[in-house]
Amino acid sequence: MQITNLYLTVFFLWISIFVGKSQQSQESLLKISSSPITYGQKITFNSKILEENRVMNIYLPDSFEVASEDHTYPVIMLSGSHGSQFFLTISGIIKHLSYVTRMPEAIIISFEEETHYAPNVYTNGMWSSRDKIEFDADPDKFTKHLKEELFPYLKKHYRAADYRIILGVSGSSVYPLHTFAKEPDLFQGHITIASADMIGMGYEPNTTFIDVFEESFIKNPNRKAYFYLGVASLDMTWNTSYQTNLDELQKRLAPFQNKNLTLKVEIIPNEDHYASVMKAILSSMEMIFPRENWSPKFRDLIKKPGNALENIDAFHNNLSKTYGFSILPKAERWNNVNSLRFIGGKLLRDGRIKESIQVFERRVSYRPRSPWAYSSLANALETDNQFDAAFKAQQKAIQLAKKYDPDYISGYEEKLNQIKSKLKQ
User: Is residue 302 located within the same domain as residue 272?
Assistant: First the structure.
């Protein structure tokens, strides 16, 4: 009996130790703190033109808060109620593409709207269940709101460039199709997804958006435009007219496809209606911002004859002329050599000290609150024996570090002491 009790005592002691250790292990995984990860803002504003309150989702580029006022950003507007549904998805794709310099950084906006501003259209047999689609409100009133209220607001408060792309999915493509037909200067790029049926519809019975597109280009054959239409392969089985629509669109706009009109129509394989969005976004961005134009190799640019910074500027100036808004060299890029930060250091290591200073001065102008940028400039100035200028630049780095980078102040101060010792010699 005593032996049995001893076994039981040992058993329960073992269980208590095991459970205690298990609880300790579980406790070590308890949440210590949490904070939200923010991908955008929700802004409610009142429109006098529309006579209503509207809710806008807005994504701002990572560089927005740290970049100089010289930096402006194109706007990608997601149309209709579908825009809110795909806001996070599309913002993430654009964020990545701009991060790896496959396109410019951009502002993304969508609306959480109950009122859908789009023209009423006749289906022309594209939808067997309905002869006409009637939307809620006047699209021209919405266009006036964009021109006179929203776009000026974005320009004033968010440094929005005068370069805009509109994107519509399925039924939300009707307003983008309307602006492509009737408002050629409102957006520079039009992206429609899952809209093979929509282009066969029209303002009047037996007329189509394709008819109005052609008329618009006949009147203004030199209008500059990007138009993308992507359709899931499984959608094409719904109605044989969809393929006819795609063929007709390409045929009718073919005479205007020159340096001013870029048109891409594609069927996305192995996808259905909404699932095609991600592939379509990648394809449409590649159409508007081709990789060969948007992946500058800084090391190749500085190998060319002439001044390094002037060569880098020339590349970006040509890009700016192509798109009609200012496109600046990347000041910083994580884990990538194609930036002013890296190329300034390479020039310094290669003994091209004066050119390195020029690059680092530009980096400072693009990142005026960066202690790292000022410290890099100080290092280049020190290498050039400009100790007074280097000392002032490093002092600025410490001043900024106190506010923006306090964990690294000691390193900046050590560098300042190093420069100070050279000043005394």
Answer: no
Structure tokens given for 86: 């795909």
Domain that holds residue 65: 41-291
CA distances from 402 to 332, 410, 412 (A): 21, 10, 10
If asked whether residues 250 and 330 sit together in one domain, one would say no
**Percent helix, strand and coil across the chain, each to the nearest 5:** 55, 15, 30
> What is the pTM (predicted TM-score) of this model?
0.90
- The SS3 of residue 250 is helix
In angstroms, rounded to a whole number, what is the distance separating the alpha carbons of residues 11 and 421? 71
Buried/exposed 371-404: b ≥16 CB within 10 Å, e otherwise: bbbbbbbbbbbbeeebbebbbbbbbbbbebbeee
Last residue of a domain, one of 269, 291, 313: 291
Average pLDDT over the chain reads 91
Same domain, 390 and 266: no
**Domain's final residue, options 274, 291, 308:** 291
Q: How far apart are CA 390 and CA 374, in angstroms?
A: 9
**Amino acid identity for residue 79 in this structure:** S
Cα 133 to chain centroid, rounded: 32
pLDDT single digits (tens) 296-324 = 899 999 999 999 999 999 999 999 999 99
Number of H helices, E strands in the chain: 17, 10
- For the stretch 105-162, pLDDT in tens is 999 999 987 788 999 999 999 998 889 999 878 999 999 999 999 999 999 999 999 9
